[in-house]
Structure formats: C-alpha cells, structure tokens
Write a structure and sequence with these properties.
Layout: H1 5-15, H2 57-60, H3 63-68, H4 74-81, H5 87-99, H6 108-113, H7 123-128, E1 158-159, E2 165-169, H8 203-215, E3 221-225, H9 234-245, E4 252-256, H10 259-262, H11 265-269, H12 271-286, E5 290-295, H13 305-316, E6 320-327, H14 335-347, E7 351-357, H15 371-381, E8 392-397, E9 402-405, E10 411-413, E11 418-422, E12 431-435, H16 443-450, H17 452-464
Parallel strand pairs: 2-3, 3-4, 4-5, 5-6, 6-7, 7-8
Antiparallel strand pairs: 1-2, 8-9, 10-11, 11-12
Helix pairs in contact: 4-5, 9-12
Bound molecules: pyridoxal-5'-phosphate and iron/sulfur cluster.
Pyridoxal-5'-phosphate binds near residues 165 and 167.
Length: about 475
C-alpha cells in the first residue's frame, strides 16, 4: 500500500471538498433529498370518504371491519364514495372491471388512501381500480401463465423450478385483488373472460405437496404463497409451518403476503394469526431454521402509522420481514417513489429484497415498463441507504428461466424493445426474452411488431446476437 502525502490529500478530496471549500462528508447540495420517509401518516384520512366519515379510529382500524367492507363492485364503490368522484370516473371503472382479468377487491384502508382529488394518476388507484380509458393493447407475445408455473408443477399448486426451493400456492384467495397479479390464471374469482385453475386450501392437496417436499431432499427452502396466506386461519398457518419445520431437509421458508400492505389492522388486532406466525418462527429458531415473512409494498403512500404499529408486533417477536415490489408504470417508476419506498421500508426495518419488472401478463399493458426504466431506477437508488436494504431489480423470465438481474441481459435493443437473457443455473442453454410495452416504441417499430412475419424476424435476429 502506498503511504505518501499525495495519496492522502487526494483521498480527502474525494470525501467532499468542493469549490466552496466545504469538507462535509455528507452531500448537502441536494435540496431535493429530505427525510419525509419518516413522516408516517397518522391523521384520520378515512373521514373524507363519505361512507367512513363518522367512523372513529377504533372502528375504522378494526380488521374485521376492513375485511367485511371490501369494495368488490363498481356499484359498491359508488355507494361508498358517493359524489367523491365524477360520473365519468365511475363509468370508466365499470368498463374497466368488465374487461379485467382479475376480480375487484379493495380494502377500505387502501380506498381511503387514494387521493380522490386526482384518482386518475393516483398510485394506489392505478394498482387496484382498472380504468377502461387507460387500457393499452397487449404485446402480441404475452401469455396467460407467463412464468410457466403450471408446466413446472409436479403437484397442483406446487412449483419446483429452482433445485433447492419450492413455491407452494397454499390457497387461491387474497385479502384484495391486484390488477397486476402474475397468477391471474388461478387467483380470485372467474372473470368475464377468464376461467381459472383453482387451488383451494384443502388438506388433501396440502398433503400431496408436503409428500412431494418430503420425497425431494434437495429442497431446503419453501415459499408459501397463493393467493395470500393472510386469508389462512391461524390453525392453518400453524399446521403448515410446523409441518415444514418437521421436514429435516427444510432449513428455511417464507410466508409471502400482501396483507400488511393492504390491511395492516390485522397485524395489530388479530392476536391468533400474529401469534401463529411468530410461534412458528420461534419454533424455527429453536431448531436453527429461518422463518420469515415477505410483504408486498409498492408505494410509500401504502405505509402509514398503523402499518408500523402492525409490523412492530412481528419485530417484537423477532420475525424477519422482507419486501418484494412490483415495478409499475405510473405507480413507482420514478426515483422519488422508489427512493421513498426503500427508505420508508428500511426505516420500519423491513428489508427491501426484490423489485420485479412487471411480468408479461395480459390485460395490464399500461402498467408494464420498459427494461430500460428498471435499469435506470436501479442505478439511481443504489447508494441511498445500506447495501443490504437496496433491492435487487430482477425480471422473472417468461418461459420458466427464473429471476434475472436487469443489468445482466445478453442483448437489449431499446429501439425494438426486446431483451435477451440466459439462465445458466436454471435452464442452461436456453434464451429468454423480455418485450418492452409496444406503446413505448416509436411508430415504425410498432408497425413491425403488428406484422407476424416481421415479429418472427425481430425475435430470431435478437436470438442470434447471443451465441451462448
Ligand atoms: C421466486 C421464486 C422462488 C424463490 O426465489 P428467490 O430468488 O429465492 O426469492 C422459488 N420458486 C419460484 C417458482 C419462484 O418464482
Ligand atoms: S395479493 Fe398477491 S396473489 Fe393476490 S392478487 Fe395480489 S399479487 Fe396476486
């Protein structure tokens, strides 16, 4: 190591002496940066919704009230909001719901957090209430079960794609229904255009999945998802958890749930359910196994004081909580939202784990972003806080290649909107494509994609640029 005066001086310069002679280590020349991620909403934000105007905090934050009063139809939305939105908006929602692949289900909590002065551009509205006027035509290469989960399923509702991990869909209902759901092939009620494959929470199907896991000793890790395990009873959470802990080769598993993001009240007051999760995690620790909870927050506005109160009950009991986010156009595809989300989650000691590029599912094209958006955002947010709290920006490849880091493409033609990835650890020798949304391309490229022969040419020449 060279220890001389020059090196020392230049090293100090790096720390921050600029033209003004300021030597502060922290950059104070970014007035756009602040600590607003710590200001968790603690007002009675529901009172501006006519149907909730008279509710006290105790009434509104009762988790039974929340789950019994979910908005499931456009008519119900109108009853609750009354003149809080325009007739044109209601008509737009109704037409949107009719065209949607997912059924409508929105908690009073989320509904109240929407900015009803500008619902068209609100990030929570965008995720849960479809507007027909915003629909964009699907990319011609999109499929329904875009991740090929059904093809990788040895048992109904169990996907075994990565050697040491299995994904178990424990049930097929959720506390809310997200427009962008990857599992629109199974989750929720059948809709106008979609008849779904159902995975009910039956003991018989669970036993088949447990048997498969028992027989495959290479599996060390299970993702318990759905649907959403927020909808499991405490006894089911416990049965599932203890069964997995009893399998010797299972070393860790996660319960994945959207619940804390959409109905945090349950964490505050459903003692049985919280007790079941925490009890399983404690039993796991006794056996030197790791049990964690994976949440699904997408925007800082979804996180309020009640969220912190709920999550603290898990932290109190030592449960590890991580978060997975879906990148969506008009929701969190800008630096302020993504930075705010990462800092706010970190502040609550929820570890931001993944940001997923929106899957190539049908019917939600206006929510997808280009790959370039994900790449740029990753660059912008890396460094804002501890490295272990910076999520990995990944793409879950269509066709079952698994998750790939957005920067790891083998080929990306931004003009044509096509990316090519490989996945040596999961499907060696295969190539996987990502297609940017058509409406983000220029007109000439849009015309090419509309033509079936041209389309094959684009894909073939992209494939050939990658030799491995
Ligand atoms: C995402 C996923 C997993 C878990 O992957 P991690 O990278 O460990 O989070 C397991 N199985 C399937 C099918 C998945 O999609
Ligand atoms: S909670 Fe999860 S599984 Fe359920 S609709 Fe939303 S994304 Fe899909």
């Amino acid at each position: 190591m060279a220890i001389n005066g020059d090196t020392e001086i230049s090293a100090r310069t790096d720390v921050g002496a600029d033209e003004d002679g300021c030597t502060c280590a922290v950059d104070e020349h970014r007035p756009d940066l602040d600590d607003s991620h710590r200001d968790l909403r603690d007002d009675e934000f529901w009172r501006h919704v006519p149907a909730y105007a008279e509710l006290s905090a105790a009434e509104f934050h009762d988790h039974r009230f929340q789950s019994r009063n979910c908005i499931t139809t456009a008519r119900k939305l109108r009853e609750v909001l009354q003149d809080g939105a325009s007739a044109a908006f209601y008509a737009d929602v109704e037409a949107g719901v009719n065209r949607s692949t997912m059924s409508l289900r929105l908690s009073p909590y989320l509904l109240s957090l929407i900015n009803w002065d500008a619902p068209e551009t609100d990030p929570i509205r965008t995720q849960f209430l479809p507007l027909a006027s915003r629909f964009r035509p699907d990319h011609p290469e999109l499929h329904f079960d875009s991740l090929n989960e059904q093809a990788d399923s040895p048992v109904a509702g169990l996907t075994h794609r990565y050697r040491d991990r299995a994904l178990f869909l424990a049930l097929d209902t959720c506390p809310v229904y997200c427009r962008f759901c990857t599992r629109s092939y199974s989750v929720g009620l059948d809709t106008e255009g979609v008849e779904k494959v159902h995975f009910g929470a039956t003991l018989e199907r669970w036993e088949q999945a447990f048997d498969y896991i028992r027989q495959h000793s290479e599996i060390e890790d299970v993702v318990v998802s759905g649907g959403d395990m927020y909808n499991l009873k405490a006894e089911q959470v416990e049965l599932l958890g203890r069964t997995l802990l009893d399998i010797d080769h299972i070393r860790r598993f996660r319960y994945a749930t959207k619940g804390p993001a959409v109905m945090p009240q349950k964490l505050v007051s459903d003692d049985d359910w919280v007790g079941a999760v925490a009890g399983v995690a404690e039993e796991g620790r006794r056996r030197h196994k790791q049990v964690s909870l994976h949440t699904h927050f997408n925007h800082p506005a979804e996180i309020t004081a009640i969220t912190q109160q709920g999550l603290n009950r898990l932290l109190d009991r030592g449960v590890i909580v991580r978060n997975q986010t879906v990148l969506q156009r008009g929701v969190n595809d800008n630096v302020a939202a993504m930075r705010g989300l990462i800092l706010r989650l970190s502040y609550l000691n929820v570890q931001p784990y993944y940001v997923f590029v929106h899957d190539m599912v049908r019917g939600v094209e206006e929510l997808r972003t280009t790959l370039q958006t994900a790449i740029e955002l990753e660059k912008e947010v890396r460094g804002v806080t501890a490295g272990y709290n910076i999520p990995a920006f990944v793409l879950d490849t269509m066709g079952g290649g698994g998750k790939r880091h957005v920067h790891s493409y083998e080929h990306y033609d931004r003009e044509q909107g096509i990316g090519v990835f490989t996945s040596p650890a999961v499907r060696p020798g295969q190539k996987f494509f990502y297609f940017d949304p058509i409406d983000e391309l220029n007109e000439a490229q849009q015309t090419r994609w509309a033509d079936a022969d041209e389309r094959r040419n684009i894909i073939e020449s992209a494939r050939q640029t990658v030799s491995r």
